[in-house]
């Protein structure tokens, strides 16, 4: 995983999804039960590192913006941009509603999200994915939010969301013609299978 830095040298989780060469063939394993794909291994290592030093990272990268509560439109604007948000929610171009500026998932944002907020954002990202597909910004946010999921905690509601997302990723692969978009969908599917142990009968 590459670390992308903003103008003030603050890192974000950026898997360089537009550059990855990940494809279905690379998910093959050399041995049963051994994860051989570097992209999935990289995700797991990053996740474990983040959760092992989460409090330190929160101090090092304090929150610099007002994080939306449960406002779906505000989150959409922050993750995908005001212009796309207005289009998706049929907001008037000159609406008086103030929309947050678009952000990449910097550590000063994602490291401060509690699990309830992460689950809510996962629901929103899934909803937007069904509308716009695996775009650059949606992929970056989905990757970052999945890293922040507390992997050792059982959550039936969240696990059900993972199953639905996994099914929709498989449907997306059947109708998607974009090479990069397919790569991203396959990667997320493998992350759900290998790390979050999503099983679909």
Automatic annotation (TrEMBL):
InterPro entries: Gemin2/Brr1. Pfam families: SIP1. Residues 1-30 are annotated as: Disordered. GO terms for biological process: spliceosomal snRNP assembly. Residues 9-28 have a biased composition (Polar residues). This is Gem-associated protein 2 like protein. It comes from Argiope bruennichi (Wasp spider).
């Amino acid at each position: 995983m590459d670390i992308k830095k903003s103008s003030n040298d603050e890192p974000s989780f950026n898997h360089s999804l537009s550059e990855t060469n990940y494809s279905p063939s690379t998910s093959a394993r050399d041995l049963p039960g051994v994860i051989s794909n570097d992209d999935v291994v990289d995700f797991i290592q990053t996740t474990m590192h983040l959760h092992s030093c989460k409090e330190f990272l929160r101090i090092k990268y304090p929150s610099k913006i007002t994080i939306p509560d449960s406002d779906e439109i505000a989150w959409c604007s922050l993750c995908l941009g005001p212009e796309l948000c207005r289009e998706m929610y049929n907001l008037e171009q000159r609406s008086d509603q103030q929309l947050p500026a678009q952000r990449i998932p910097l550590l000063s944002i994602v490291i401060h999200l509690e699990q309830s907020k992460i689950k809510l954002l996962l629901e929103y990202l899934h909803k937007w994915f069904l509308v716009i597909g695996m775009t650059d910004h949606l992929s970056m946010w989905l990757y970052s939010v999945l890293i922040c999921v507390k992997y050792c905690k059982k959550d039936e509601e969240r696990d059900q969301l993972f199953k639905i997302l996994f099914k929709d990723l498989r449907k997306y692969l059947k109708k998607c013609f974009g090479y990069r978009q397919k790569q991203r969908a396959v990667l997320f599917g493998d992350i759900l299978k290998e790390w979050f142990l999503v099983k679909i009968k």
